[in-house]
Amino acid sequence: MPTTLFIETPTNFSFEQTLFSHGWSQLLPFAVDRENLKLSYVFDALGKLISAQISEVNGNLQIEIAENKLNQKAKDKITRDVRHVLRLDDDLQKFYKLTKTEKRLAWIAKLKAGRLMRSPTVWEDLVKTICTTNCSWALTKNMTANLVNKIGAETADGKRAFPTAEQMASVPEEFYKNEIRAGYRSAYFAELAEKTAS
User: Fold this and answer.
1) What percentage of residues in the chain have a pLDDT greater than 70?
2) How far, in Å, CA of 159 to CA of 153, rounded?
3) How far apart are the first and last CA of the chain?
4) Secondary structure (H, E, C), the chain
5) Which residues 6+ apart lie within 8 Å of 68 measured at CB?
6) 58-76: b (≥16 Cβ within 10 Å) or e
7) Nearest residue to 44 (alpha-carbon basis) of 10, 85, 4
8) Can you tell me the distance from the alpha carbon of 198 to that of 181, in angstroms, rounded to the nearest whole number?
9) Structural domains present in the chain
């Protein structure tokens, strides 16, 4: 039996607009079910990797977790991460006030847009940002998928998490060139992972 958590959302929040604010939702371990408008992710719940699906139900968020034996601290950690990923605590009132002064930007507040999705950690966002440099979006998605599938730890239900700095530091620079297909980024990945892990 899965665990279900609920998060109340601000009145100016749009789940759909946030999901598709930019391409982050297309990068593993994020995955979007466009038909049912659900966001999947593998969360680190205090050392335990947990698959979860986030959807909008009656104007609020529902988090379905593929684990039924989570303590309250782990549930709180997942809730905090979801709030962070979807930027639920960002106050956009001043931003919306500014956009309303420009006719061509008035749609932003009307559609409750403006929140840019992010990863739960700065580490993941940094590595993914490096994957976006000087290449096509298709290559960015490919590199990120390789990192997750070839280095990331596996969950009980067969999904994979984004690799930690320690996991990325455990492989040599050549691995990034040959397996991740990261090109010149390989040296940066190796150095960044080693320094972060240490």
Assistant:
1) 99
2) 8
3) 39
4) CCEEEEECCCCCCCHHHHHCCCHHHHCCCCEEECCCCEEEEEEEECCEEEEEEEEEECCEEEEEECCCCCCHHHHHHHHHHHHHHCCCCCCCHHHHHHHCCCHHHHHHHHCCCCCCCCCCCHHHHHHHHHHCCCCCHHHHHHHHHHHHHHHCCECCCCCECCCCHHHHHCCCHHHHHHHHCCCCHHHHHHHHHHHHHC
5) 1, 2, 3
6) eeebebebbbeebeeebbe
7) 85
8) 25
9) 3-110 (3.30.310.20), 122-197 (1.10.340.30)
Six-digit token string for 155 = 């969950």
Q: Quick check: 12 pLDDT over 80?
A: yes
* Bond into 10 cis (ω within 30): no
How confident is the model at residue 68, as a pLDDT? 77
For the stretch 79-107, pLDDT in tens is: 999 999 999 999 999 999 999 999 999 99
Rounded CA separation 59/61 (Å): 7
d(CA 7, CA 79): 8
Q: How far is the C-alpha of 127 from the C-alpha of 193, rounded, in Å? A: 9
pLDDT at 132 over 90: yes
